[in-house]
């Protein structure tokens, strides 16, 4: 089953419409490191990482592993381990996965730029817990914890996140006046 994601912040899972947060740069096909954009495309859910001190391993058919305080993710395009998990402290630039704010209590690394990594094409694209106000992410997709747990319960090794660019519209959503005007002038 796929989690379908639409700008500016809605997702569909198993017929349910869920609120989500996407990157501050929107959803873009031309993603690159540091642009804050969520990459458009279809990305496999690789596995689940979770904070064992805050949450028991959730029900899921994804492979699951607990996080540790030393876990990080390399986001340095010049480093040989770019877009790979690393142990902190790390010699290159890396994001800390053990966070105090709770947004990484559940992390699903997505299969973006990881099968033949291209330096600078973007790193650390995750499905994770949203902030209470659904503030934009740095490129990830974020859901309320309850919604993420629902997705995890139905996810297996074939599950994907499909992020649709700004031209796409969620099924059942009426076109805006701007979208109707753009179609008339096309």
- Discrete helix count: 2
Number of domains: 1
Any idea of the CATH class? Mainly Beta
Percentage of residues in strands? 25-35%
- Rough outline: globular
According to CATH, the fold-level topology is: L,D-transpeptidase catalytic domain-like
Tell me what the CATH architecture is: Beta Barrel
Defining key terms:
186 residues, mainly beta, ten-stranded mixed sheet, three-stranded antiparallel sheet, 2 helices, 15 strands, 30% strand, globular, disordered C terminus
Molecular structure report:
The protein is mostly beta strands and 186 residues long. The protein has one domain: Beta Barrel (L,D-transpeptidase catalytic domain-like). The protein has helices at 145-154, 177-184, and strands at 2-6, 10-13, 16-21, 27-28, 38-39, 41-44, 48-50, 64-66, 71-74, 85-87, 94-96, 106-109, 126-129, 141-143, 160-164. The strands form 3 sheets. The protein has a 10-stranded mixed sheet, with helices on one face. A 3-stranded antiparallel sheet has the order 10-9-11, with no helix packed on it. A two-stranded parallel sheet has the order 4-5. It starts with a strand and ends with a helix. Residues 175-186 have low confidence and may be disordered.
């Amino acid at each position: 089953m796929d989690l379908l994601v639409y700008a500016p912040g809605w997702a569909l899972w198993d017929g349910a419409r869920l609120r989500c947060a996407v990157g501050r740069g929107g959803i873009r096909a031309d993603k690159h490191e540091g642009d804050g954009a969520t990459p458009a495309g279809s990305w496999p859910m690789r596995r689940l990482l979770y904070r064992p001190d805050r949450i028991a391993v959730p029900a899921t058919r994804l492979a699951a592993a607990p996080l540790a305080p030393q876990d990080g993710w390399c986001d340095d395009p010049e480093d040989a381990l770019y877009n790979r998990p690393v142990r902190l402290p790390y010699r290159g630039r890396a994001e800390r996965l053990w966070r105090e704010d709770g947004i990484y209590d559940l992390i699903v690394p997505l299969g973006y730029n990881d099968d033949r990594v291209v330096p600078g094409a973007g790193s650390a694209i995750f499905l994770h817990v949203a902030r209470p106000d659904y503030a934009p992410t740095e490129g990830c997709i974020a859901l309320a914890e309850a919604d993420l747990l629902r997705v995890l319960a139905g996810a297996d090794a074939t599950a994907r996140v499909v992020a649709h660019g700004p031209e796409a519209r969620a099924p059942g959503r009426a076109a805006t006046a701007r979208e109707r005007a753009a179609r008339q002038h096309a």
